[in-house]
Design goal:
It contains 11 helices and 3 strands, in the order H-H-H-H-H-H-H-H-E-H-E-H-E-H. By secondary structure, it is mainly alpha-helical. The protein folds into 3 domains: 1-30; 40-183 and 269-277, Orthogonal Bundle (Cytochrome Bc1 Complex, Chain D, domain 2); 194-265, no CATH class. It has a 3-stranded antiparallel sheet with strand order 2-1-3. Helix 3 (49-57) packs across helix 4 (59-65) and helix 7 packs across helix 11 (266-277). The structure holds heme C. Heme C is lined by residues 110, 113-115, 117-119, 157-159, 161, 164, 167-168, 180, 184, 187-190, 192, 271, 275.
Length: 289
């Protein structure tokens, strides 16, 4: 009996050692010189809509993290600007620089927080996994600088994140990172509150007549994008909002106020940019031989 347990022990150990070696060798073996790895600046050429939206949704944090982001104009700011206007090219370049930084920072945070300990990035072509997690990715999809170190993971406490990009809104990710139970009751994912900070936000109380008519809660205050570090900065942002109101909406001015609030830090935005990137990379077609 003693002999049997020793044999089983060593067989188990060998299986573990084999799996361990293969997970080192296989990622290395799938890369070759014929298909050079896509660098981060190359990947950043495909700025996602979600990343562009972050600038409108969280303007203060966005500007703080991406120095050149203020040169990057949003779609709305570019309406009416001619296709060959140099501002378009300059703006696009600023977007790509900001996006490259966000992706790199986001990936680094994903590694540092050991998100990979609970999430895989590998849809297996078995057991109808595609129905739950989306498309199976090929070796070429993983041939990017953002996939170094390889983020396949070994455990699935949470769902596979291979095709996470575009699945949820930025807002959802913000709420989920701050308190996973708020979006997913019973979730065992930890709350990443250290990627959030306190600040001051401009808010607007809803017009009681409109609330009554639309069946909305009159006690609710609607936030404006942007979380300012000081009350004074938020107040001046509030004054700017007030000054931009047309005469007909003069009454709205009295409904504006500033209040303490919690919002994502620039690190959280980078992490979200990375999550929204997952699964969006499409490698170029294999050249015909
Ligand atoms: C202790 C394990 C654990 C860790 C560590 C963890 N998660 Fe999760 N995660 C989960 C579980 C369980 C779920 C499913 C329930 C839910 O939505 O919260 C989940 C869900 C998610 C989802 C939603 C997927 C979807 O679309 O349904 C995202 C995105 C996510 N995690 C990102 C992260 C990131 C980013 C980190 C690291 C900062 C992280 N997780 C760390 C366990 C974990």
């Amino acid at each position: 009996m003693d002999r049997l347990t020793s044999v089983l022990f060593f067989a188990g150990f060998l299986c573990f050692a084999l799996a361990f070696t293969l997970s080192c060798v296989y990622p290395w073996a799938i890369t070759d010189a014929r298909h050079p790895e896509a660098s981060i600046p190359e990947l950043a050429k495909g700025v996602t809509g979600e990343f562009r939206r972050l600038k409108e949704e969280f303007p203060v944090e966005f500007a703080a993290n991406y120095r050149r982001a203020n040169e990057a104009l949003t779609e709305r700011e570019l309406t009416g600007v001619a296709a060959d206007d140099p501002r378009r090219a300059k703006s696009e370049e600023a977007w790509q620089t900001a996006y490259a930084k966000a992706l790199r920072d986001g990936r680094d945070i994903y590694v540092a927080e050991a998100c990979w300990h609970c999430h895989s990035q590998f849809v297996r072509p078995v057991a109808n996994e595609t129905q739950r997690f989306g498309e199976v990715r090929t070796a070429q999809h993983y041939n990017t600088a953002l996939d170094r170190p390889v983020m396949w993971g070994t455990r699935r406490v949470g769902p596979d994140l291979t095709n996470e990009g575009g699945l949820r809104s930025n807002d959802w990710h913000v709420a989920h990172l701050h308190d996973p139970r708020s979006t997913s009751p019973g979730s065992v994912m930890p709350a990443y509150t250290w990627y959030f900070h306190e600040g001051w936000q401009v808010r607007r109380r809803i017009d009681p007549v409109v609330a009554e008519r639309e069946g909305l809660d009159a006690a609710r205050a609607y936030p404006f994008p942007g979380l300012y570090e000081t009350e004074a900065a938020a107040k001046s942002a509030m004054d700017a909002v007030g000054a931009s109101l047309p005469q007909s909406l003069e009454a709205e001015k009295s409904r504006l106020f500033v209040e303490k609030a919690i919002g994502p830090s620039s690190e959280a935005l980078s992490l979200i940019a990375y999550l929204q990137w997952l699964g969006t990379y499409e490698p170029a077609e294999e050249p015909a031989r």
